[in-house]
């Protein structure tokens, strides 16, 4: 049985401000992120009970900026959304994502194929007359995560 993936563009969506708590990863390159992100998903999952005020306990969120705007914004955040920041667990960080307009694509399949799907989303954004804003936060909202099967909403900032 072969590994399959599917994706469908959901359209444009306004997303309210999000408060996130989790781990920040800073790696040398895409290959290292490909190795470290799954480890970090497992690590945060095992420490989920330490995070207060979870919005949706089954939904992990990855956050990153496609273009580096500052050293503080470099990296990939693996987080849970919270209603309020309280007693951030040791070794974790908090991050506020401002309200933003996103082009959204649903992806189901192995994590290793996610980055390729962004090309489809970027092409659709241009075809619809929107402009990407790589200096703002991109979100990957996981309703299911494993090494071989993911169900994720890819949210690319647009204007």
In short:
This protein has 159 residues and is an alpha+beta fold. The chain has helices at 30-46, 114-127, and strands at residues 6-15, 18-25, 60-65, 76-82, 93-97, 100-109, 137-144, 150-157. It has a single domain (6-157), classed as Regulatory factor, effector binding domain (Multidrug-efflux Transporter 1 Regulator Bmrr, Chain A).
Describe the structure.
- The chain is of the alpha+beta class and 159 residues long.
- It has a single domain (6-157), classed as Multidrug-efflux Transporter 1 Regulator Bmrr, Chain A, CATH 3.20.80.10.
- It has two helices and eight strands.
- It has an eight-stranded antiparallel sheet.
- Strand 7 and strand 8 (150-157) form a beta hairpin.
- The N and C termini lie far apart (41 Å).
- The model has no long low-confidence stretch (mean pLDDT 91).
Which terms summarize this structure?
159 residues; Reg_factor_effector_dom_sf; AraC effector-binding domain-containing protein; Multidrug-efflux Transporter 1 Regulator Bmrr, Chain A; single chain; 2 helices
CATH class: Alpha Beta
Which architecture would the CATH scheme give at its second level? Alpha-Beta Barrel
In whole angstroms, the N-to-C terminal distance is 41 Å
The backbone outline, from C-alpha atoms, is: globular
- Helicity level, as a percent range? 10-25%
**What name is given to the CATH topology?**
Multidrug-efflux Transporter 1 Regulator Bmrr, Chain A
N-to-C SSE series?
EEHEEEEHEE
